[in-house]
Design goal:
Layout: H1 4-11, E1 17-21, E2 27-30, H2 32-38, H3 42-46, H4 59-72, E3 76-83, E4 89-101, E5 104-113, H5 115-137, E6 141-145, E7 151-154, H6 157-162, H7 180-190, E8 198-200, E9 204-207, E10 213-222, E11 232-238, H8 240-262, E12 266-271, E13 276-279, H9 282-285, E14 294-296, H10 297-303, H11 306-322, E15 326-334, E16 340-351, E17 357-366, H12 368-386, E18 390-395, E19 402-405, H13 407-413, H14 417-420, H15 435-447, E20 451-458, E21 464-475, E22 481-490, H16 492-518, H17 520-535, H18 539-566
Antiparallel strand pairs: 1-2, 1-5, 3-4, 4-5, 6-7, 6-11, 8-10, 9-10, 10-11, 12-13, 12-17, 13-14, 15-16, 16-17, 18-19, 18-22, 20-21, 21-22
């Protein structure tokens, strides 16, 4: 361009401008703005055609427009896509007019980059479509109410939430469908919209088409100052399921707290994801740990007795690996005071959708007393089984039946254990047994009191033997009779010894009588004869007296021999 004014207008314009030959489409001139915008040098531009700054798919359309404009010669504007030197595609608005440039038919073109404008328009369009979709298909109900809290607008979500079309609410008061018990609170909170731009209403119940009450949560925004709105915009959502779930959770929490307080068990909740365990207060009361309501999984393992730890851990890992939902075990656990308690532990494993354990809830029960009782029971059982005295146990029926006998009773009675179990204890008696002793036993059973008697029992072969019987009732914790325990000692040897003593006493009594009566006569004669001999001087008389003396001596000797034989 030679004209200075036109050159300045062309060359210094902030808008890219170029001139091209309408017959060859070659660039004839470009300004600085075009060079800066497109990234080509002026020489590069002048060696190019206008097709080279356009996507190939647009060229055919461009040629048609140019030919049409050459024929009409009119000024035109249009929107095209151009390619910069760096390959970026921009959208431009073209203003073009037919001119004569240095004797050539040409067109001068102004190209304004409208890419950002188009992007903004597209974003706005997407935003509008998104908003419409949210209002139309969103889960939240959007409404606009006026100063009197009457509905001006209700989104289509009302059909899904309340079962009615939006038009049903238009002009109706928003408070008309709120539960009477919630109305006062909602009205009190709603008037705060005139003080604050945004308010959050407490959950309230709202009646649907079928008369059911739905729990609704609403957030309101005062947009009366917005000309397009001029109302209060409310976003409401149905939270009925959430309220139900919250109540279930609350009930479970209350139930958990009640159980925790009511039971002596140590309740625990193990989270495998974050390696933590939450405990109820029994960890202090039972296990003597203070301020240990939250621990790690590792801490629990560290308190298990070294002799039990490997076994317990292996069993737990097998349970988790197998996908089982139940686990239980017994082990010794170290308490806060350093002592160990026997624990019966059981848990329920929670699995995720992949079957992986993520949580386990359970309870530890202190079974130390039970273990000690079991140990004593084993000792007592050993004593009972190995006792030399016969032991017989019956049930608590009105007419007791044998439920247990030890080996000593089997040996004593001659019956097998199978022959005795299920029988009445009378199997050991017969008609010759002391009826008074049996009656005493029956009365003791009736009165549920202990008793001791001596009886003559009979073996399976019918041989009698003496027994000393002690009978004791066993009561349950509530005082109810549970069973009878009878301990029987064979006292036959004692009674044989007593018989021998009685026989000896009888013999001694006979000897005593013989000594006091039979032996006394010859002894008295001997004494008298000795006295006569001492005073007799007649030889014939002395011989006669000696004859009588010998006879009395022989008689006394016979008596002494008899006594000796009896002892």
């Amino acid at each position: 361009m030679k004209n200075t004014d036109l050159f300045n207008l062309f060359e210094l314009s902030p808008v890219p401008i170029w001139i091209f030959d309408v017959s060859t489409y070659k660039f004839l001139d470009v300004n600085k703005a075009a060079i800066e915008q497109y990234g080509y040098s002026k020489d590069e531009f002048l060696s190019m055609t206008i097709h080279q700054i356009r996507p190939p798919e647009d060229i055919e359309r461009i040629e048609g427009i140019i030919k049409e404009n050459v024929e009409t010669g009119i000024f035109y504007t249009n929107t095209f896509r151009h390619i910069l030197k760096n390959g970026e595609i921009i959208n431009v608005e073209i203003a073009s007019n037919l001119i004569n440039f240095e004797g050539k038919e040409a067109r001068v073109v102004l190209a304004i980059d409208i890419s950002e404008i188009l992007h903004a328009q597209e974003a706005l369009k997407m935003s509008e479509e998104r908003f419409k979709a949210l209002v139309r298909d969103g889960s939240d109900l959007i409404t606009v109410i006026d100063r009197d809290f009457n509905y001006k607008y209700v989104s289509p979500a009302s059909k899904r939430v309340f079962g009615v079309e939006p038009d049903f609410f238009i002009g109706k008061n928003a408070f008309a469908y709120i539960h009477p018990d919630d109305l006062a609170l909602v009205e009190k909170e709603a008037i705060q919209i005139w003080e604050y731009k945004h308010i959050q209403l407490s959950p309230y119940r709202y009646r649907d088409l079928n008369g059911n009450w739905l729990w609704i949560e609403t957030r309101a925004t005062n947009l009366y100052h917005e000309p397009a709105i001029q109302g209060i915009v409310c976003t409401s959502k149905d939270i009925t399921e959430r309220i139900k779930n919250d109540r279930i959770v609350q009930e479970n929490i209350e139930r958990y707290n009640i159980v925790s307080k009511a039971t002596s068990d140590i309740i625990w909740d193990c989270n495998f994801v974050n390696d933590t365990i939450a405990w109820n207060k029994a960890i202090n009361g039972v296990l003597k740990y203070k301020n240990k309501e939250h621990t790690t999984y590792k801490w629990w393992l560290e308190q298990i007795h070294e002799e039990d730890k490997e076994r317990v851990l292996a069993k737990l890992e097998r349970c988790i690996a197998s996908g089982s939902t139940k686990w239980e075990d017994e082990y010794r656990f170290r308490c806060g005071d350093g002592s160990y308690k026997y624990i019966f532990d059981r848990g329920f494993v929670l699995l995720d959708e992949k079957g992986k354990a993520y949580r386990m809830i359970g309870a530890m029960q202190d079974i130390t007393a039970r273990k000690e009782e079991e140990a004593w029971s084993e000792v007592l059982e050993s004593v009972v089984v190995n006792a030399t005295d016969a032991i017989l146990i019956t049930n608590a029926a009105e007419q007791p039946v044998i439920i247990y006998v030890n080996d000593a009773l089997v040996e004593m009675s001659g019956y097998s254990r199978e022959e005795l179990i299920g029988q009445f204890p009378d199997i050991l008696h017969n008609k010759h047994s002391d009826q008074r002793a049996l009656n005493k036993l029956k009365q003791a059973i009736k009165d549920q009191k202990p008793c001791a008697v001596e009886l003559v029992n009979y073996t399976k072969q019918g041989q009698s033997y003496h027994v000393s019987v002690t009978l004791n009732p066993i009561f349950e914790g509530d005082g109810k009779l549970a069973r009878w325990v009878s301990i029987r000692r064979d006292v036959s040897e004692y009674w044989r010894h007593m018989d021998e003593i009685e026989e000896q006493n009888r013999k001694l009594n006979e000897i005593s009588w013989m000594q006091s009566h039979v032996a006394r006569a010859p002894l008295a004669r001997i004494l008298s004869l000795v006295e006569l001999l001492a005073h007799s001087k007649d030889e014939q008389e002395r011989l006669e007296l000696m004859k009588y003396l010998k006879s009395s001596a022989d008689e006394l000797d016979q008596i002494i021999t008899t006594i000796a034989n009896q002892t």
